[in-house]
Amino acid sequence: MAVNKINFTINSRQYTVVAEETTEYIEKLCEHINEKVQNVLRDGQNIMGERPLVLAALNICDEYYKKSEECEALHETVKTLRDRNRRLNDTAENLQDELDETKSGQISIDEAAMRAEVDDANGKLSDANNQIKFLEGQVKKLEGKIKDLEARDKRREQDFLDLIDKQ
What we know:
By secondary structure, this protein is mainly alpha-helical. Strands 1-2 form a two-stranded antiparallel ribbon. Helix 1 crosses helix 2. The radius of gyration is 55 Å and the shape is rod-shaped. The model has no long low-confidence stretch (mean pLDDT 87).
């Protein structure tokens, strides 16, 4: 950055400074110092020589340290808020993960319930099929008995008819 040679007046005295800062910035600083010197002169009685500058410098230092403390407090607040924000984000992520797991678990629970119902239905179907096979076997046996009975009835009927014909 360019070096600037700047002339300025504080408390009616001329000064020259060489600085990298802009002329506008140095002039702002000088205005601030002149305001502080004027405040000291207005508040004090018969203050002469360098005393107004020293008292103005003390006032400026006081402002600086108070602002520094405020700035430090703000930095601590920002740090605390960032830490809290980080914890809240972590908590939010954990809650989202839990929600996702819960949703996933609900699907698994629903699927498990459906599978249990399907297994139960398959078991009942298998039992029903076995019952059907058993009953089909019973039907065949009964059909065989019916045929036997019909054959026996026909024989008896024939025997009866034969008896009637013999008489």
